[in-house]
């Protein structure tokens, strides 16, 4: 089987989720090709990609007009490349969620999103109802188009491979931007903290935080732990923090070594985004909060007392 | 500007779903059904566009069994002008739904199609993208704000790193994310009024062939995820830190 993985990157380096997608590709075949699309700086990303274990060939599209490539422009290009492959994979994330189904449509394929397990070359496990049920599905499509959950596939090593590099931009003959969709601006929250989806420790706040200002209490603990800060949908809906903090079915799915849930009741839709964490600790003043049913360590306490105490306890 | 809004009937988002003992799916008998929450946001946005004078006519569409009429009546009660049920009793995947919607777009000629970003039953998150591709239209996925400016649609998209703003050419297909708006409840007089709004029923096979509608995925089994066991309660912050350090070894 020939497998193409679409690289998710930020213009400087590959997102760790890409390494998990390469690992998932390894379930189909020993090696895969990795497609890197982006602006001029993506040449450096391709050099990094060529060292990833399990990648046979890096295919690079590198042009100014691809800096903010639209799905509208990228999809026909990827669909054309897909002719050479039996499967196209990408890691779950806003990049793949936007692009991969559009590629699938052009190939008349039903995309299989959020794949948790590759059982066989045509059989996959994916979540339904926010992970409250798992479906094993067999695809009848000749070509398989999947997005895979990074938390379900152990990342391959980022070093040790020696892939060949092929520039395909000239063959594309298409600009990354089309008349249909043009980029105007990014509004990115700047943070020194690690990104939610690849942090080793995540500390999240819920409606119990009562205000956005109180998130400073979480941040104080996060900085001592080198942790990322997240939030439940309730905290996002209440306007305490921006949506990119959201952990859950409708936000990000995380699986850190340690997840600390503070003032989070544990709604189904939040659990869907964090229940695969290795260790879960929960602080909540309601002893009956559902979060305690999944927490390895539960502390029934007022978070406004517990958080400062936690911050103090972590001082060297 | 005519707007087409897709609405899906799903198990109510607040119901705890139960997997059927025989592994064929989840229990739907005697379970409360509602409009998919993201579809509610799409409907609300359409109604706001009409209130602002941007949209002229709002057509709600649902694909599925006859019971979906109830979901369409809800959309009418909130402010849609008329509704179309594309009746089909078998399973429909996003690819088939997108094909149905594409056929309706041809018939209805809307300038904008508004959908929810994902349905909370199968969580595919792909109908918008597939529909836009099939029509050759622009797509505004995971939108948290939208503004019509001449023949352009200015959208803010929820992406991993924050917000991405794009200018899309109309016609366009847009998927609603959570923060686009807060849906209103239908008032009792409007619920009554919705009963007399036009609701047309057509069968899916009037629009597409059986082979276009047939699922591409065969469901081999549906099962409960492995349960996570509850752990222990600690009495103090100090004990918590000690356990995380010495027992769990994650600090």
Entry summary:
The complex is a heterodimer of chains A (316) and B (251). With 316 residues, chain A is an alpha/beta fold.
Describe the structure.
Chain A is α/β, with parallel strands linked by helices. Helices cover 25% and strands 27% of the residues of chain A. Chain A is built from nine helices and 16 strands. The mean pLDDT of chain A is 94. Chain B has one domain (2-246): Rossmann fold, CATH 3.40.50. The model of chain B has no long low-confidence stretch (mean pLDDT 96). In chain B, the strands form two sheets. A nine-stranded mixed sheet of chain B has the order 9-8-7-10-6-1-4-5-11, sandwiched between helices. Chain B has a two-stranded antiparallel ribbon with strand order 2-3. The chains are: A alpha/beta (316), B alpha/beta (251). Strand 8 of chain A pairs antiparallel with strand 12 of chain B.
Tell me the CATH topology of chain B.
Answer: Rossmann fold
Counted beta strands of chain B: 13
Radius of gyration of chain B: 21 Å
Report the C-alpha radius of gyration of chain A, rounded. 21 Å
Largest sheet of chain A: 7 strands, parallel
Low-confidence stretches of chain B: none
Q: Tally of extended strands of chain A?
A: 16
Number of helices of chain B: 8
Count of domains of chain B = 1
Q: Could you tell me the strand content of chain A as a percent range?
A: 25-35%
CATH architectural group of chain B: 3-Layer(aba) Sandwich
H/E element sequence of chain A = EHEHEHEHEEEEEEHEEHEHEHEEH
Low-confidence runs of chain A: none
Largest interface: A-B, 91 and 77 residues
CA(first)-CA(last) distance of chain A: 53 Å
| Shape descriptor of chain B | globular
């Amino acid at each position: 089987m020939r497998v193409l993985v679409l690289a998710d990157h930020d213009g400087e380096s590959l997102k760790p989720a890409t390494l998990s997608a390469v690992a998932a590709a390894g379930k189909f075949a020993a090696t895969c090709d990795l497609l890197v699309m982006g602006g001029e700086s993506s040449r450096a990303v391709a050099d990094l990609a060529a060292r990833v274990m399990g990648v046979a060939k890096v295919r690079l599209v590198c042009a100014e007009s691809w800096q903010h490539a639209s799905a509208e422009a990228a999809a026909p290009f990827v669909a054309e490349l897909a002719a050479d492959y039996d499967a196209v994979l990408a890691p779950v994330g806003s990049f793949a969620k936007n692009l991969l189904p559009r590629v699938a449509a052009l190939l008349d394929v039903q995309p299989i999103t959020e794949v948790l397990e590759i059982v066989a070359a045509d059989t996959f496990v994916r979540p339904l109802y926010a992970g409250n049920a798992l479906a094993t599905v067999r695809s009848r499509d000749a070509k398989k188009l999947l997005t895979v959950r990074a938390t379900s596939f152990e990342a391959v090593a980022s070093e040790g491979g020696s892939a060949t590099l092929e520039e395909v931009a000239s063959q594309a003959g298409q600009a990354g931007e089309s008349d249909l969709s043009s980029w105007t601006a990014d509004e990115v929250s700047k943070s020194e903290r690690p990104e939610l989806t690849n942090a080793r420790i995540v500390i999240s706040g819920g409606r119990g935080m009562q205000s956005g200002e109180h998130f400073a209490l979480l941040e104080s603990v996060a900085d001592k732990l080198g942790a990322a800060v997240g939030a439940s949908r309730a905290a996002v809906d209440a306007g305490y923090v921006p949506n990119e903090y959201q952990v859950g079915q409708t936000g990000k799915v995380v699986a850190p070594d340690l997840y600390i849930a503070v003032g989070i009741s544990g709604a189904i839709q939040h659990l869907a985004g964090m229940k695969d964490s290795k260790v879960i600790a929960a602080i909540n003043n309601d002893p009956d909060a559902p979060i305690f049913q999944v927490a390895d360590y539960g502390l029934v306490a007022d978070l406004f007392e517990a958080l400062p105490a936690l911050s103090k306890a972590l001082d060297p | 500007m005519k707007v087409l809004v897709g609405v899906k009937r799903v198990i109510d988002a607040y119901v705890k779903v139960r997997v059927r003992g025989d592994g064929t799916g989840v229990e739907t008998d005697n379970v409360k059904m509602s409009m998919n929450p993201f579809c509610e946001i799409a409907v609300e946005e359409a109604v706001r566009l009409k209130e602002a004078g941007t949209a002229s006519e709002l057509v709600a569409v649902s694909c599925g069994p006859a019971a979906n009429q109830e979901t369409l009546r809800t959309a009418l009660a909130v402010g849609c002008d008329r509704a179309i049920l594309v009746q089909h009793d078998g399973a429909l995947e996003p690819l088939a739904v997108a094909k149905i919607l594409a056929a309706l777009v041809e018939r209805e000629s809307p300038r904008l199609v508004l959908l929810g970003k994902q349905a909370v039953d199968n969580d595919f998150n792909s109908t918008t993208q597939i529909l836009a591709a099939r029509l050759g239209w622009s797509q505004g996925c995971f939108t948290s704000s939208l503004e019509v400016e001449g023949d352009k649609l200015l959208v803010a998209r929820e992406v991993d790193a924050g917000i991405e703003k794009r200018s899309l050419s109309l016609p366009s297909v847009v998927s609603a994310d959570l923060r686009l708006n807060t849906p209103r409840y239908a008032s009792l007089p409007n619920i009554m009024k919705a009963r007399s709004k036009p609701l047309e029923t057509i069968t899916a096979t009037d629009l597409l062939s059986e082979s276009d509608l047939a699922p591409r995925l065969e469901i081999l089994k549906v099962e409960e995820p492995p349960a996570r066991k509850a752990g222990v309660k600690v009495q103090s912050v100090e004990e918590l830190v000690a356990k995380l350090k010495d027992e769990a070894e994650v600090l």
